Amino acid sequence: MSLGPGKYDDEATWVRERTNASGVILIVIGGDRGYGFAAQATLETTLSLSAMLRDIADQIDADLKERA
């Protein structure tokens, strides 16, 4: 979940703590609890999450077009 704990929040906490990160976004595909994501970040970062993910999607598309 983008606000409040989600079903993969414990795993996101594990990654954030072990990497000493100020925030983490975890996307799970086909996990044991199904698809999902967890975000742990400042409110400012959380509010810009949609735009950040759009930028990442654009980068993925560009990379795939270069390989085609």
Descriptive keywords:
single chain, 68 residues, alpha+beta, two-stranded antiparallel ribbon, 3 helices, 51% helix
How would you describe this structure to a colleague?
By secondary structure, the protein is of the alpha+beta class. It has one domain (9-67). 51% of the residues lie in helices and 22% in strands. It has 3 helices and 2 strands. The protein has helices spanning 9-19, 43-47, 49-67, and strands spanning 24-31, 34-40. Strands 1-2 form a two-stranded antiparallel sheet. A hairpin with a 2-residue loop joins β1 (24-31) and β2. It is globular. The N and C termini lie far apart (34 Å).
Layout of helices and strands:
Layout: H1 9-19, E1 24-31, E2 34-40, H2 43-47, H3 49-67
Antiparallel strand pairs: 1-2
Domains counted in the coordinates: how many?
A: 1
Strand order of the largest sheet: 1-2
Order of secondary-structure elements:
HEEHH
Cα Rg:
14 Å
Tally of alpha and pi helices = 3
Q: What form results from the Cα inertia axes?
A: globular
Helix percent reads: 40-55%
E-strand count: 2
What portion of residues belong to β-strands? 15-25%
- N- to C-terminal distance: 34 Å
- The chain-level mean pLDDT equals 90
> Which quaternary structure do these chains form?
single chain
Q: How would a textbook summarize the main sheet?
A: 2 strands, antiparallel
Unreliable runs? none
